[in-house]
Amino acid sequence: MVEAAFNSISQFLSDFVASLVSLAKVAIRIRHATRLPNPQVPVCSVLGNGPSLTESLATQFDFIRQTEIVCVNNFAHAEAFIQLRPQDYVILDPNYFVFNEHTTDRDDIRKTLSVFLEKVDWPMTLFVPHFAKGTYLLGKIEQGNPLITVVYFNYTVLRGFKRLIYWLYAKGFGMPQAQTVIIAALALMINRKFKTIYLFGADTSWHEQIRLNDQNQLLIKQIHFYDKPKDLTHQPVYLDAQRQRTFSMAAQFLSLHKAFRGYEVLRDYADYRGVQIINASAKSYIDAFERQATSESVTNE
User: Are 113 and 94 in contact, with CB atoms under 8 Å apart?
Assistant: First the structure.
């Protein structure tokens, strides 16, 4: 009884302090409130870059084409990008926003930029965090392809009392911590009030690729659906640009915890907004959302 009362008081105080901090952050960044375009159809598909997306594209391609399509980060590297002609694209990787003409070690970003400038010949909305405004990448895109409309969203992480935080999310003043770009994409699509959001390619199976070498360095093999498997190896995950130390095992699993917790927060927020999220990934460790195969066609009711 005493323990339960203590835990309840502790949780209230934690939420109270977190709410005050969130309100202070909102006050500082209130001019960055997100303004989102309306959905084009009632249903969208958020496509993660996990290996299972290959199977989903093979079996669900026609269904996905009937929905509003949302791609993320390096999806433009895939042949499917041109075939699908997605209406929406979300980039959250901070490396994109420090990239410039002098960067020599990010051919992946250079490739994405090239595709945006040379191959996107349809209207597409690019969602990026507000702190990306004025960067080299966004300048090149905004000047180089008028078919791409850039929408800046407010990536201010908010925590606290649910009703307060959900209201702030809905007003575009912030969002849950986006440990993965998929979390950011889902938060944006919830706020655009899609009736149903289908999630594909969200394997979230990085733990399967974790290794530890004889020097206690943490190694991960990053696998995406557009990669050539023979070119992939386990690589150290460094803490700093100097590459002196790798993440610890504890830090890596804490990062995974934050990702899975983010999906739980989104599930509850989606319920609050009356939006259904369905995890239709061929393989996925995400247990926060309903698992369901897609129907053969999209209804516009």
Answer: no
pLDDT at residue 228 is higher than 80: no
Nearest to 188 by CA among 135, 197, 179, 141: 197
Tell me the residue range of the domain where 99 lies: 2-202
pLDDT-derived band of residue 242, with 50, 70 and 90 as boundaries? low
Residue 301 reports pLDDT greater than 50: no
* Rounded distance between C-alpha atoms, residue 234 and residue 262, angstroms: 26
Tell me: pLDDT of 298 over 60: no
Supply the DSSP symbol for 103. Answer: -
Say what the pTM is. Answer: 0.92
Count the domains in the chain. Answer: 1
User: Computed from CA positions of residues 83, 224, 126, 296, in that sequence, does the dihedral angle turn out positive or negative?
Assistant: positive
Q: Is residue 249 in some structural domain? A: no
| Token pair 């129907």 in the structure block, residue | 295
| CA–CA dist 172, 235 (Å, integer) | 37
> Could you give phi then psi for residue 146, rounded to 5 degrees?
-70, -10
State pLDDT tens for residues 169-220.
999 999 999 999 999 999 999 999 999 999 999 999 999 898 988 888 888 8
Any domain includes 122: yes
Pairing of strands 196-200, 124-129: unpaired
Distances in Å between the Cα of 205 and the Cα atoms of 118, 121, 125 are 33, 34, 29
47-51, 136-140, 240-244, 257-261: least confident range? 240-244
User: Residue 130 domain-assigned?
Assistant: yes
Could you tell me if residue 177 is inside a domain? Answer: yes
Measure the CA–CA gap between 31 and 154, rounded to whole angstroms.
Answer: 9
